[in-house]
RNA sequence: GGUUCCUUGGCCGAGUGGUUAGGUAGCGGUCUGCAAAACCGCCUACGGCGGUUCGAUUCCGCCAGGAACCUCCA
């Protein structure tokens, strides 16, 4: 491999060559979902982005530890309110379920959706609720270092003090003084010394269902803490890559940096990566904005905004056709386009298996290989990679028509190229149309086409076209090629 | 109000100081009994106004419009 992987580091705001901390090994931590309702299209973005990263690191030969958390505690609904009730328990109350039932339900859905999108599972998927001890240990450490204070059963991070020794805001490019001067609103938060202080441990009110004992009383951990505690536990005090959505950059990741740095005495993340948002009508798609479409709705077409169903691979391809750091605008037209493009790609793959070989080649596979490699190395530029793959599609089709030639060795390389980039790295896969698998259906269609073929031989176009049209109505597309008739199911 | 960012052809989306992104849609052609598929060709765009430059969509400034974050959020 001549070139090396470069990754845009949100921390330095520039692309940097990726060199792992430990040769041959890579550690990555990605902020996972808060499981209190169904996964939506927005969740697919980081899942696919960091799946791409994970797959590419594996492809490059790294032994990768991929940690993605499940947030199943904390996340104050509204810190201003005195209820202190978190999202999970609020939902539980509404649905008359145990909090852990809610968590389990949506976690299961999330996992199913992720599998449908053909994303690889992380190597460790820690849950915040399973790491209360670790979080308490970290709080204690931050207290010992003097960067936190306890008030009335809650523990807060002292942003001011931290800012005096380190600098708060390095990731999001803010500075504390400006923030204090320009903040939009300053709520009265009597316990905090400073409005920008954030909770490490929050005292639970009696009606709060999810709470744990601690040396500060019954309570629950602050939102930002789980990532610091769990990333340190599984990846070490310093690790390679931390990923998540851009909307988490501030305050979540900023607070994470502050906590970890305060506890450990040094920064812990080398590369910060942030995927951009999916928008709908130019606006961010988010549960809190009520303009989201869940993945199940997308796959089934069951949503007023959808003009049809979109398969998981279509959704994935749609996302991969945009660079992860750009916003991506949702529309039915765009999804339909993506689906058609993917179909063309997959048809070419099928044709690839049947290509004739020649003693000499007119196509340059090496150039294609190089281009694909360069695209991925350039901050995971999947849209460029896909553009090159379409160049490959063109070649495949031309070879299939006898207008270009390829050697056996070249064909092997071309097959390998698509296997590696399309299936291993992009993580796309052929989608079977449901009915095509039935042996009986296949035999029936073949029989019908045999009848049509006889009609054609008699130049009985009325009959042959009738058969083709009628088959078309039930979703079977007939294609007459030079060497015979083919058909396929159209879902 | 503060911080950051964006504005590309019908649509989605790359990218670059001078050379074709790609997909999809549309048009014309090849192939076919006709279609479909496939292939070839065409549609050659970079918000507005200035500036730097031999040359700017690409750099700088201003303006307009939009977004994200500043509050839970992928």
Folded structure, characterized:
The protein contains 16 helices and 15 strands. The protein is an alpha/beta fold. The protein has three domains: 6-275, Rossmann fold (3-Layer(aba) Sandwich), CATH 3.40.50; 279-425, Orthogonal Bundle (Isoleucyl-tRNA Synthetase, Domain 1); 434-489, no CATH class. The longest helix has 21 residues, at 332-352. 41% of the residues are buried.
SSE blueprint:
Blueprint: E1 6-9, E2 14-17, E3 25-30, H1 41-59, E4 63-68, H2 87-95, H3 99-116, H4 132-145, E5 148-151, E6 154-157, H5 159-165, H6 176-182, E7 198-203, E8 219-221, H7 225-235, E9 239-245, H8 249-264, E10 269-275, E11 278-280, E12 283-284, H9 295-300, H10 312-320, E13 328-330, H11 332-352, H12 365-377, H13 382-400, H14 408-425, H15 439-457, H16 461-473, E14 476-481, E15 484-489
Parallel strand pairs: 3-4, 3-9, 9-10, 11-13
Antiparallel strand pairs: 1-2, 5-6, 6-7, 7-8, 11-12, 14-15
Helix pairs in contact: 2-3, 4-7, 4-8, 7-8, 10-11, 11-13, 12-13, 12-14, 13-14, 15-16
The structure holds one RNA strand of 74 nucleotides.
């Amino acid at each position: 491999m001549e070139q090396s992987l470069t990754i845009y580091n949100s921390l330095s705001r520039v692309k940097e060559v990726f060199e792992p901390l430990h040769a041959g090994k890579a550690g990555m931590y990605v902020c996972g979902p808060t499981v209190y309702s169904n996964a939506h299209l927005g969740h697919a973005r980081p899942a696919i982005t960091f799946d791409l990263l994970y797959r590419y690191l594996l492809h490059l030969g790294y032994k990768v530890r991929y940690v993605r958390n499940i947030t199943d505690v904390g996340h104050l609904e509204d810190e201003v309110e005195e209820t202190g009730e978190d999202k999970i328990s609020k939902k539980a109350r509404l649905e008359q379920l145990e909090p852990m039932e809610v968590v389990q339900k949506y976690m299961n859905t999330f996992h199913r959706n992720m599998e449908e999108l053909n994303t690889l599972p992380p190597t460790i998927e820690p849950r915040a609720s399973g790491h209360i001890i670790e979080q308490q240990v970290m709080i204690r450490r931050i207290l010992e270092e003097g960067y936190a204070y306890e008030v009335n059963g809650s523990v807060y991070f002292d942003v001011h003090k931290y800012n005096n020794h380190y600098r708060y805001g390095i990731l999001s490019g803010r500075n504390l003084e400006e923030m204090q001067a320009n903040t939009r609103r300053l709520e009265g938060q009597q316990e905090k010394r400073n409005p920008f202080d954030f909770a490490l441990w929050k005292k639970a009110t009696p009606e709060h269902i999810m709470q744990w004992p601690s040396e500060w009383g019954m309570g629950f951990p602050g939102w930002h803490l789980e990532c610091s505690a769990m990333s340190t536990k599984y990846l070490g005090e310093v690790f390679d890559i931390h990923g998540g959505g851009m909307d988490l950059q501030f305050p979540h990741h900023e607070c994470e940096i502050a906590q970890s740095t305060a506890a450990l005495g040094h920064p812990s993340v080398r590369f910060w990566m942030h995927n951009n948002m999916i928008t709908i009508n130019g606006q961010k798609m988010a549960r809190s904005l009520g303009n989201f479409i869940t993945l199940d709705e997308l796959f089934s077409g069951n949503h007023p905004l959808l003009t049809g169903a979109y398969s998981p691979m279509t959704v994935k391809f749609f996302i991969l056709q945009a660079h992860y750091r750009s916003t991506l605008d949702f529309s039915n037209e765009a999804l339909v386009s993506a689906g058609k493009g993917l179909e063309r790609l997959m048809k070419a793959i099928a044709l690839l298996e049947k290509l004739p070989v020649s003693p000499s080649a007119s196509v340059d596979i090496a150039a294609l290989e190089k281009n694909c490699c360069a695209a991925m190395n350039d901050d995971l530029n999947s849209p460029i990679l896909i553009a090159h793959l379409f160049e490959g599609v063109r070649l495949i089709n031309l070879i299939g028509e006898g207008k270009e030639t390829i050697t056996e060795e070249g064909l092997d390389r071309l097959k390998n190229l698509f296997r590696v980039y399309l299936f291993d790295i992009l993580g796309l896969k052929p989608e079977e149309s449901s009915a095509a698998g039935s042996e009986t259906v296949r035999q029936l269609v073949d029989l019908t086409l045999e009848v049509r073929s006889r009609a054609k031989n008699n130049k009985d176009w009325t009959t042959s076209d009738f058969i083709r049209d009628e088959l078309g109505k039930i979703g079977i597309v007939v294609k007459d090629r030079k060497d015979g008739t083919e058909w396929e199911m159209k879902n």
